[in-house]
Amino acid sequence: SGPQAPARGHPPASAHTDAEQHGHVAEVPVAAFADVEGEAWPIGAFGNDQPANAWGLGSRVFWRELDQLLAAMRSGPVWLRVVGEELARALQREEVPTGPCPPPFVASLTLDVDKVIERENARGVPESTPFVKANFFLLCWTLDRIYDGRPIPKFWVLETVARLPYFSYITVLHLYESLGWWRTPQLREVHNAEEDNELHHLLIMESLGGGCAWFDRFLAQHAALLYYWVVVALFLLDPRLAYNFSLLVEEHAFVTYAQFVDENRQILEKVPAPPIAVSYYRTGDLYYFDKFQTSRASTAPPRRPPCDTLLDVFANIRDDEQEHVLTMRSCQEWWGGAGPSPLRGAEQSALGAREDWRRW
C-alpha cells in the first residue's frame, strides 16, 4: 500500500521557534505571513517538520507538495484549473490554500539583469574550463529568464543551489578521511561555516516569501540535487574545477546583490531586518560567521556589520558573497599549487601537525 496521507486541515496559525523544532538553535522565531484571507501561515510548514524516518518524511512531503501543486493549478488558467480539479477529485484530495504570501513591499523590488551583466563584464568573469562555464551559464540563463521581475524567489533558488557545493566538498573530504587517504578537519570546518552562511541567506529569503511557490521549490530542489552530484564528480576528478564552479557562482551572486542593493536602496532602508538576520549577524552564536571569512587576518577585529534594516541585511549578504569569492579563489589556487593555504595561520596550527598526531 502507498503512503498514508496526513490529516487534512489548515496549518496552525502559531509559529514555532527553531529550537522547538530542532532542539539546537535558541530564540530564532519562524516568520509568519498573512494569506489573502488574512490568516497567518507559518513558513515552518514548508520544511521544518518534526523528525521521522525517511519513509515518514518523504511521504509527508509528497502529500503536502501534491496538495500545493493542485492548489497552484487551481489558481492558473482555465484549462489548468480544470485539470487540477479533475486530478484532485480522482485522488480524493481536499482543496487547500496556497502557501504564504510575501510581504506587500516585495512586489516593488526590482532587479535589472542587463545592469548585472554590465557589472560582471566590468569586473571580469573568472577563468574556467568549457564544461564548468557551460554549467554555470546554463544556471544563470535559466534563472534570468524564469525569474525576470521576481528577485526574491530568484535569490531563494540561487541560495538553495549555492550551498550545495559545500555539501559536495564535505562529502568527498569525509570519504577521503574514512578511507585513510587524507585528513583535513580544518578545511571541512571552513566549508561547514560557508554552508551555514548560505543557509542563513536562504532563511532570510524565506522570511521574505521566497520559496512559497510550488514551482520554485520544485525547480530549486531538483537543480540542487543535480549540481550536488556534478560538483562531487568534479571534486573527485580535480578539486580545482569544483572550487572554480563555486567561484563563478559566488562572483555572480556578489554582482547580483550589489546591483539589487543599489537599485532598491530607498525601499530596503524603510523595512526592519527580519529576526533571523538579526540573530545571525548580531545576537546569535557568531562562531561560524567568523569562521568562513578566511581572507581576514587572525589578528584583525571580527566583522560586526550593522543589521537594523533590510538594506543592512542585503548589504551584508553582498559582502558575504565577496568573502566566498576570496575563499573559493584561495582554495582553487592552493589545490593547484599556485597559492597559500586558504586557512588562516592560527587555524592551520590549531590541531597540530600530522607528525604530532602520529607521535601522540
TrEMBL record:
<dbReference type="Pfam" id="PF01786">
    <property type="entry name" value="AOX"/>
</dbReference>
<keyword id="KW-0679">Respiratory chain</keyword>
<keyword id="KW-1133">Transmembrane helix</keyword>
<dbReference type="GO" id="GO:0046872">
    <property type="term" value="F:metal ion binding"/>
</dbReference>
<dbReference type="GO" id="GO:0016020">
    <property type="term" value="C:membrane"/>
</dbReference>
<keyword id="KW-0472">Membrane</keyword>
<dbReference type="InterPro" id="IPR002680">
    <property type="entry name" value="AOX"/>
</dbReference>
<comment type="similarity">
    <text>Belongs to the alternative oxidase family.</text>
</comment>
<keyword id="KW-0560">Oxidoreductase</keyword>
<dbReference type="GO" id="GO:0010230">
    <property type="term" value="P:alternative respiration"/>
</dbReference>
<keyword id="KW-0813">Transport</keyword>
<keyword id="KW-0479">Metal-binding</keyword>
<keyword id="KW-0249">Electron transport</keyword>
<dbReference type="GO" id="GO:0009916">
    <property type="term" value="F:alternative oxidase activity"/>
</dbReference>
<keyword id="KW-0812">Transmembrane</keyword>
<protein>
    <recommendedName>
        <fullName>Ubiquinol oxidase</fullName>
    </recommendedName>
</protein>
<dbReference type="InterPro" id="IPR038659">
    <property type="entry name" value="AOX_sf"/>
</dbReference>
<dbReference type="GO" id="GO:0005739">
    <property type="term" value="C:mitochondrion"/>
</dbReference>
<keyword id="KW-0408">Iron</keyword>
<feature type="region of interest" description="Disordered">
    <location>
        <begin position="1"/>
        <end position="22"/>
    </location>
</feature>
